[in-house]
Amino acid sequence: MTEGTAPEGEKLQKVLARTGLGSRREMERAIEAGRVTVNGEVAELGERVTDADHIEFDGRRLPAAEENRCRVILYNKPVGEICSRHDPEGRPTVYDRLPRLRSGRWISVGRLDFNTSGLLLFTNSGELANKLMHPSSVIDREYLVRIQGQVDDEMKKRLTTGVLLEDGAARFTDIVESGGEGNNRWFYCVVMEGRNREVRRLWESQGVRVSRLKRVRYGSVFIPSNVRVGQWIEMEPREIDDLCVTAGLPKLGQRPLTQVEKQNLQRQRRKLRKPPAQKARRSNPRQN
């Protein structure tokens, strides 16, 4: 290599993480354990590879470069689905409605509990998923919550100053009232972490009850108005680049979509615009 020129290709652990096999750190450990080969030779940590290289992980060849495109799904989760891939009790999971991947797997960016609805992101990139969830990325999450009980300014001040929960101090960075009356009022509230049931626990620490909870925003990503409960939409490359910037990663600069990929994306978005079935609309006109 000529002095001063950059080495060709990308680091192997980064390529592996992008396929959804795991985080970059997990892929580094796999390489050190001898589970990865490049062109028939056991790989070394820090090795650089190109699209022309034959890479195998645990004896299975990585998919072609065109199948490794980073993809992100935005899903509007309904109440009554769990965020595990399989449930011993047979309950529906958030993965049941997602499109199938030809290679890799969908990775959930955080979780929502069984009784919480709203925005969930999925990606086939382990690196992007881990960065979006890591506390160092400092990404805010916004929720719409219906509270049963009296909420006054002193309570809101306590919740934004900080409350001691069983797993440490927690707080909302913002609380904005959004309608309702009496003991049933709606609020938008923002947290900077993804701790288990944090929003519910914060409100319940003040002696009020959360009767509805929906996540409406993750960083700069909002639920589009045309994505109804139980539906998903795939993000376009430019939207994924914006998400990478939010996570503190460089833009991917992915190849343009092929004609087939564009047609599939347009077909899926047209499907979102279709009205619900006539029968369902008559029986419950407020379901959306």
Question: Features of this protein?
Answer:
alpha+beta; 288 residues; 25% helix; disordered N terminus; 8 helices; single chain; 9-stranded mixed β-sheet; Structural Genomics Hypothetical 15.5 Kd Protein In mrcA-pckA Intergenic Region, Chain A
Describe the model.
The protein contains eight helices and 17 strands. With 288 residues, the protein is an alpha+beta fold. The protein has two domains: 58 residues, RNA-binding S4 domain (Structural Genomics Hypothetical 15.5 Kd Protein In mrcA-pckA Intergenic Region, Chain A), CATH 3.10.290; 151 residues, Pseudouridine synthase. The strands form four sheets. Strands 7, 8, 9, 10, 13, 14, 15, 16 and 17 form a nine-stranded mixed β-sheet that branches. It has a four-stranded antiparallel β-sheet with strand order 3-2-5-6, with no helix packed on it. Strand 13 and strand 14 form a beta hairpin. Helix 1 crosses helix 2. The longest helix has 15 residues. The chain is globular, with a radius of gyration of 22 Å. The N terminus and C terminus are likely disordered.
